[in-house]
């Protein structure tokens, strides 16, 4: 048997969203698997994915859940898919032991210097994929699954969907989910604006000339939102605009008649959903003016390179950066970071201080030397470390870093420092 991996993955995530919301957690979702198929028992894979997602959701006491899948290789020759379910925030250690035991894994303490830290690994009996777990209870949890039973999807005669700069508005979304939707749409050529409320979107809509109004509106359901306001908003849009009312699985709204003018879709959206929206984009005659807020395409997003030898810290850092609206690259060593900066210089580097082989101080010295020679452009380097002290900060500044922040990273402090240095850049 075989089935589209992205659809299986999306459905597994949809089933977990009500539990995420019930716990007051935020979440993001991304799937970059380019139409490949899973060769095997599709219901077993969906069950395995749902079980891993639930492990993270149940373990998190506060914070966010980040769900993603990434393909290695090409659509014609897929080598593997890596599924990553990360929790960013405070973990419940007692519940961690229970949920890991349910996975059939042995939880091993691996912390040092008195810092609680746990790891586990094994094989998933439903997929025969490799499962790894890593947890720092005060910072978060990472569960990953590696799948290799893959094959190319069916060939399509149609060219890949691309919105060619058409406008998409995301309404009623929080920053984490909104930015995950934004990144996915930007990869398909949309220029995206985010509005925290329908009221703000309605005010902006009233100020736009007809040609600058959006071709796609994704309106997320929210408790207390008024249906009559939604319909009045829809009436102000061009007739060609796609209006999508995004609801979670088992939403009471699914029992009701559809909002006039809106199509109702369960989120998170699958790649096929986004392709459908994009195939119907109306982006041919874009005006030269801009909107407020300015719609961003992928090329305009500031790029942050996160450097850390711990996979969990990379997941946590990515989640925080993406929640703040940055495009993220990662490197698991100083050597890899230097190589990445040679080929694609970021707007800012977030550098761990203590790493094996080459630490962050030595990596910074090498990068600054390359910048002095004109080999790479200048960019800020911000250190982050669990062993923060005034002395460590002075060492970082002496090595050429611009600032030094303590771990665990706090989103407010991070937002202020990134704004400070990216504005300079």
Automatic annotation (TrEMBL):
Gene3D superfamilies: 3.40.50.2300
PROSITE patterns the record matches: RESPONSE_REGULATORY
InterPro entries: CheY-like_superfamily, Sig_transdc_resp-reg_receiver
Biological process annotations from GO: phosphorelay signal transduction system
Pfam families xref list: Response_reg (PF00072)
Residue stretches making up the Response regulatory domain: 303-422
Modified-residue entries (4-aspartylphosphate), positions: 352
TM annotation in the entry: none
UniProt KW keywords: Phosphoprotein
SUPFAM superfamilies per UniProt: CheY-like
Protein name as it appears in the record: Response regulator
Organism expressing this protein natively: Aquabacterium soli
């Amino acid at each position: 048997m075989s089935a589209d991996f992205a659809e299986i993955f999306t459905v597994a995530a949809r089933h977990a969203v009500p539990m995420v919301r019930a716990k007051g957690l935020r979440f993001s979702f991304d799937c970059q698997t380019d139409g490949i198929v899973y060769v095997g028992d599709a219901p077993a894979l969906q069950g395995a994915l749902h079980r891993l997602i639930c492990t993270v959701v149940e373990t998190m006491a506060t914070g966010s859940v980040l769900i993603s899948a990434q393909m290695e290789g090409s659509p014609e020759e897929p080598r593997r898919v890596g599924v990553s379910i990360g929790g960013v925030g405070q973990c419940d250690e007692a519940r961690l032991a229970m949920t890991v035991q349910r996975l059939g894994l042995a939880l091993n303490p691996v912390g040092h210097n008195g810092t609680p830290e746990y790891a586990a690994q094994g094989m998933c009996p439903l997929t025969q994929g490799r499962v790894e777990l890593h947890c720092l209870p005060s910072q978060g949890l990472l569960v990953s699954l590696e799948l290799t039973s893959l094959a190319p999807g069916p060939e399509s005669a149609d060219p890949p969907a691309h919105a060619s700069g058409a406008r998409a508005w995301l309404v009623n979304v929080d920053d984490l989910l909104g930015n995950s939707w934004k990144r996915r749409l930007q990869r398909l050529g949309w220029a995206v604006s985010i509005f925290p409320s329908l009221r703000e979107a309605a005010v902006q809509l009233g100020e736009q000339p007809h040609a600058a109004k959006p071709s796609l509106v994704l309106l997320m359901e929210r408790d207390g939102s008024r249906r009559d306001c939604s319909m009045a908003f829809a009436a102000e849009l061009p007739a060609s605009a796609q209006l999508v009312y995004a609801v979670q699985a088992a939403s009471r709204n699914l029992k009701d008649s559809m909002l006039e003018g809106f199509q109702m879709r369960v989120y998170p959206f699958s790649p096929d959903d986004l392709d459908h929206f994009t195939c119907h984009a109306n982006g041919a005659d874009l005006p030269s003016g801009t909107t407020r807020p300015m719609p961003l395409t992928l090329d305009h997003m500031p790029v942050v390179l996160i450097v850390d030898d711990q996979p969990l810290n990379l997941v946590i850092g990515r989640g925080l950066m993406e929640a703040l609206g940055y495009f993220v690259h990662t490197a698991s060593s100083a050597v890899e970071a230097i190589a990445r900066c040679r080929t694609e210089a970021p707007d800012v580097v977030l550098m761990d201080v203590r790493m094996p082989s080459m630490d962050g101080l030595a990596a910074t010295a090498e990068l600054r030397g390359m910048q002095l020679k004109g080999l790479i452009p200048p960019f800020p380097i911000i250190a982050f470390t669990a062993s923060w002290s005034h002395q460590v900060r002075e060492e970082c500044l002496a090595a050429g870093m611009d600032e030094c922040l303590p771990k665990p990273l706090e989103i407010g402090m991070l937002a202020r420092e990134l704004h400070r240095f990216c504005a300079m850049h």
